[in-house]
Design a protein that fits this description.
The chain is an alpha+beta fold. The chain folds into 2 domains: 144 residues, Cytidine Deaminase, domain 2 (3-Layer(aba) Sandwich); 129 residues, Cytidine Deaminase, domain 2 (3-Layer(aba) Sandwich). Helices cover 24% and strands 23% of the residues. The protein has 10 helices and 13 strands. The strands form 3 sheets. The chain has a 6-stranded mixed β-sheet with strand order 1-3-2-4-5-6. A hairpin with a 4-residue loop joins strand 8 and strand 9. Helix 4 crosses helix 8. The N and C termini lie far apart (50 Å). Its EC number is 3.5.4.5. One of its GO terms (biological process) is pyrimidine nucleoside catabolic process. Belongs to the cytidine and deoxycytidylate deaminase family.
C-alpha cells in the first residue's frame, strides 16, 4: 500500500514487525528512511530513526529545496524532531542517524542538529547510536557529544503550549478549531510555535491540489542558526503525509505571524514558495496579536522533575 511505502511513524508493534525489537535494531528502518529523503541537489540522502517515550518509532529525512541554497534545507534530525512535535510527542529517547550512502554506518548528528536537539526537555540524556558497518556499535549521550553547548533558558520545545494569538482586524473572525479554512489552521500552528528567544511565533498551513492540508510552525534555537522556519516545518508534514507528492502540487499557503515581529517569515516564505510550489500558488499573510485576556488564563510556574528544574504551563480554570 502507498501509505506503508511513505510511512514516517510506526507503533511499537509495527516497528517490531520491521525488526526493531531493541535499541540496537533501530538501523533496520534506516533503508526505508533514506529511500524517502529528498536530496535533488547534493544527491546525499540521510535517514534518521528515533524512539519516543511513547514507544513509537519516528523517521526523519533530509529535504533539499530545488533551486534554493542548501541553508534552506531540512536536516534529517530536524525533520524527526518536527515529526515528534506534529504528533504531540513529549521527548526522544534513542536516535540513529545514517552517515554513509549505503546506510551501514551511523554517527553523531552535525553540530547544527546537536544544538537543535537541545531545545527538548532532558535532551542531554538522548542516546545516540555510533556504529560502523562491521561493529555492533554503542550508544553515547548527547551530553557526551555536545560538551560545549548553548544551554536553552526553557527547553520546552515538545511541551504543550498556547501562545494566545488572535488574528488582527477583520481576519480575526475565525471558525471552530475543526474548520477547513487555512487561516484557522495557520493560526493554530502559530499558537504552537516555539519562539522563546525573539517572541516571534508564526505558523503556516498549506494545501495541495487534492485539497489535503498540512501545517507547521516556527521552531527557534538558542543558537539562532539551527532554527527551523514555519514553511520548512509545514513541508515536513507535507513530506510525511503527502504520499510522495512533489512540492509543485502545493497550490495555496497561509502564513500567520505578528505584525512588526522581530523575526518576520514573510519574505523568506514567499521566496521559497515562488521557487518550489505550483506556479499559481496563492500565498496569503495574516497578522496576529497576543490576546492578553486569553493569556491571563495561563500561568507559568516552576516545576521540579527528578531533581531538575523546569517550567510548566498550566491553564487556570475560572469558576
Amino acid at each position: 500500500m502507498a501509505q506503508d511505502q511513505y510511512k514516517f511513524v510506526f507503533t511499537a508493534k509495527e516497528a517490531e514487525s520491521e525488526g526493531v525489537t531493541e535499541p540496537f535494531r533501530l538501523p533496520n528502518l534506516i533503508t526505508k528512511a533514506m529511500s524517502l529523503a529528498r536530496a535533488p541537489i547534493s544527491k546525499y540522502k540521510v535517514g534518521a530513526v528515533g524512539r519516543a517515550p511513547s514507544g513509537r518509532i519516528y523517521l526523519g529525512v533530509n529535504v533539499e529545496l530545488p533551486g534554493l541554497p542548501l541553508h534552506h534545507s531540512i536536516h534529517a534530525e530536524q525533520f524527526l524532531v518536527t515529526n515528534l512535535a506534529l504528533n504531540s510527542e513529549k521527548g526522544l529517547h534513542l536516535l540513529a542517524v545514517s552517515i554513509s550512502t549505503d546506510g551501514n554506518d551511523f554517527g553523531a548528528p552535525c553540530g547544527n542538529c546537536r544544538q537543535f536537539l537541545m531545545e527538548m526537555r532532558n535532551a542531554l540524556d538522548i542516546q545516540i547510536l555510533l556504529k560502523s558497518k562491521h561493529e555492533e556499535g554503542s550508544f553515547r549521550s548527547l551530553r557526551h557529544l555536545l560538551p560545549d553547548r548553548f544551554s536553552p533558558c526553557s527547553p520546552l520545545l515538545l511541551e504543550k503550549r498556547d501562545n494566545c494569538l488572535t488574528l488582527s482586524g477583520s481576519a480575526g473572525e475565525i471558525c471552530s478549531s475543526d474548520c477547513s479554512h487555512l487561516k484557522c489552521k495557520a493560526l493554530a500552528a502559530a499558537n504552537n510555535s516555539f519562539s522563546p528567544y525573539t517572541n516571534s511565533p508564526s505558523g503556516v498551513a498549506l494545501q495541495d491540489d487534492d485539497g489535503e492540508w498540512y501545517r507547521g510552525w516556527y521552531i527557534e534555537s538558542v543558537a539562532s542558526n539551527p532554527s527551523l522556519g514555519p514553511v520548512q516545518a509545514a513541508l515536513v508534514d507535507f513530506v510525511a503525509r503527502g504520499l510522495g507528492k512533489g512540492f509543485d502540487k502545493i497550490v495555496e499557503v497561509v502564513l500567520v505571524e505578528k505584525k512588526n515581529a522581530r523575526v518576520s517569515q514573510e519574505g523568506t516564505a514567499k521566496m521559497i514558495l515562488d521557487t518550489i510550489a505550483a506556479p499559481n500558488c496563492d500565498f496569503k499573510v495574516f497578522h496576529c496579536y497576543e490576546d492578553l485576556v486569553k493569556k491571563m488564563n495561563y500561568i507559568t510556574i516552576p516545576e521540579v522533575e527528578n531533581g531538575k528544574k523546569g517550567y510548566l504551563v498550566r491553564k487556570i480554570i475560572r469558576q
